[in-house]
Amino acid sequence: MNKPRNLKDALKKKLSKREMQFLRTSYDSVGNIAVIEIPPELEKKEALIGEALLEVNPQFETVCRIVGAHKGFFRIQPVKVIAGKRNKTATYRESGCILKVNLGKVFFSPRLSHERERIAKLIKKGEVVGAFFAGVGPFPLVFAKNSEMKKAIAIELNPHAVENMRENIILNKQQERVEAVLGDVNKVVPKKYKGKFDRVVMPLPKGGENFLAASISSIKSSGGVVHFYQFVPIDDPYSESLKLIREECKKQGRKCRVLSKKKVRSFSARAIQVVIDFRVK
C-alpha cells in the first residue's frame, strides 16, 4: 500500500465529501509537534485527522489542535493533544538553536524565523541588543548563535516563558551572552536600561506601539536601530506606524531615519504584519 502524499490524500476515504470540504490542510510545525486548526464541523473527527497527519509526517511525535484564539494578557493560544504522545513541550530547532516551547503556556511563532535570521545578519560585532517581549528566547538565541553581538538582554513578562527561556539559554550554552529578565518592558527599561542598547527588537504580537517610548529611550545616545513590528490595515500599512515613530522620537528630542519597511506576513483578509527598521540618534 502506497503512503499517502498529503493530509487530504490520507483522509479521502475516511471522511465524507461534505466533511472533506471543511478540512484545513495547513498546520504549524513546531519541532516534534504539529499544531493544526480543526473547524467545529470536524470536531468529532479530530483524532482521525491527527493520526492521519502523523502518518503523512512521521517526523512529528504529537499533533495538537488549536482550541481557542490567542487570549489573555500573554496572548496564549490554548491547544489540545489529539494524536501521538501526550506531550505539549515541543523541541524546536532553528538557525543552530534548540528551543523548548511549552505550547499552551507561552506565545511562540515559527513564522518569524526569517526575521530572526535577517536581523542576526545586520548585527555588528560588539553590539548590545535589547530583545523585548522575548518569549522563550528565539530572537536573542538566534542572534547569539549567528552574530558577533556582545550581549542580549531578553525581557519577558510571562513567567512560564522566562522559565523556558532560561532552560533554552543553558541548552544552547549562551549563559554569558543572553540574560533573561522577568518583567514589564515599560517598567524595567526606565529603571535599568535607559540608553543601554545599540539595537532593539520588539516583536510583540499585539500593541507594540505602547512600548515605543521605552524602546527609543533604551537606545544609546550615540545612536542605534529599532525593529518595530505591528499589525496594520492592508490598504494603508505604514502611515500610522511611521507617524507614531516620528512623534515619539520628536517628543524625546531625538532624530530618526527609516532604514527599511516591509510586510512580514499575512494576518487576516484586512490586516498584515509589518516591520519598520529605523535608526535613532
TrEMBL record:
The keyword Calcium does not apply. Residues 27-281 form the SAM-dependent methyltransferase TRM5/TYW2-type domain. It comes from Candidatus Iainarchaeum sp. It holds the Pfam family TRM5-TYW2_MTfase. Keywords: Cytoplasm, Methyltransferase, S-adenosyl-L-methionine, Transferase, tRNA processing. InterPro entries: MeTrfase_TRM5/TYW2 (IPR030382), SAM-dependent_MTases_sf (IPR029063), TRM5-TYW2-like_MTfase (IPR056743), TRM5/TYW2-like_N (IPR056744). This is tRNA (Guanine-N1)-methyltransferase. The keyword Magnesium does not apply. One of its GO terms (molecular function) is tRNA methyltransferase activity.
